[in-house]
């Protein structure tokens, strides 16, 4: 397994957010992490990256137990994060933002520009002058520049215009074709399911269902994902 969470329990102070998250994915897979608002998707991602320490359970990545590792060490093992709300350096240019996270490998500015031609056009612009969608492309580009074994996208397309969403989904499909391992959270099932090899559904901080997209029946969607 590339990534394996077993019985993960995470707290914010005294308040427990995760009560037992299990998830496993192999290299080259695209996995969807699903669940209604507040069910623990972001906290699960924070737990993987060492940003919210686990109280119980384990996280293993690429043969390492990272359950209590520091975020910078986890990132160096090959985990790239595209966080909710993006977070690029606002006062650096697009190219500077990309270079700031560069590590050796396939992904260079040239490759990122080929994936997102809009970023190529805005190479010399400051990140704070980009639209939300362009900032999201930059956030994906920054994560790719670390040449991660696994890229994790939290709310991949939330709040973006439809045209931009399409560009992000197209990029995710391209990455998948290239064999990039992907863990993705998004609310648009119609876009998410076609790219997913496997889905994990959270409810109240627990993994309550996992399977391939074709097994995610209307009844299951209604029960765990309906509004
Ligand atoms: P959303 O889709 O709304 O982002 P989510 O599935 O990502 O939801 P989380 O953000 O992981 O859910 O939240 C899980 C639980 O943890 C919720 O009950 C939430 O209220 C709680 N929580 C999240 N962040 C904090 C925090 N900083 N302090 C205290 N509780 C928090």
TrEMBL record:
Residues 3-227 form the ABC transporter domain. One of its GO terms (biological process) is L-amino acid transport. The keyword Nucleotide-binding applies. SMART domains: AAA. The keyword 4Fe-4S does not apply. Pfam families: ABC_tran. PROSITE patterns: ABC_TRANSPORTER_1, ABC_TRANSPORTER_2. One of its GO terms (molecular function) is ATP binding. Keywords: Amino-acid transport, ATP-binding, Nucleotide-binding, Transport. InterPro entries: AAA+_ATPase, ABC_transporter-like_ATP-bd, ABC_transporter-like_CS, BCAA_Transport_ATP-bd_LivF, P-loop_NTPase. Belongs to the ABC transporter superfamily. This is Branched-chain amino acid transport system ATP-binding protein. It comes from Phyllobacterium myrsinacearum.
């Amino acid at each position: 397994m590339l990534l394996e969470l077993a019985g993960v329990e995470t707290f914010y102070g005294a308040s427990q957010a995760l009560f037992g998250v299990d998830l496993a994915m192999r290299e080259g897979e695209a996995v969807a992490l699903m669940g209604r608002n507040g069910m623990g998707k972001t906290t699960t991602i924070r737990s993987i990256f060492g940003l919210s320490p686990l109280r119980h359970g384990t996280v293993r990545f690429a043969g390492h137990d990272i359950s209590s590792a520091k975020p910078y060490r986890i990132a160096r093992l090959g985990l790239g994060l595209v966080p909710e709300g993006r977070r690029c350096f606002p006062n650096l240019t697009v190219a500077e933002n990309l270079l700031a996270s560069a590590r050796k490998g396939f992904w260079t500015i040239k490759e990122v520009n080929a994936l997102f031609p809009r970023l190529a056009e805005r190479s010399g612009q400051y990140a704070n002058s980009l639209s939300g969608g362009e900032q999201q492309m930059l956030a994906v580009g920054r994560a790719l520049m670390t040449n991660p074994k696994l890229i994790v996208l939290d709310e991949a397309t939330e709040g973006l215009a439809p045209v931009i969403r399409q560009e992000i989904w197209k990029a995710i499909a391209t990455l998948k074709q290239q064999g990039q391992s992907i863990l993705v959270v998004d609310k648009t099932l119609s876009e998410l399911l076609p790219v997913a090899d496997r889905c994990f559904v959270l409810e109240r901080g627990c993994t309550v269902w996992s399977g391939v997209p074709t097994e995610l029946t209307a009844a299951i969607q209604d029960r765990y994902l309906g509004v």
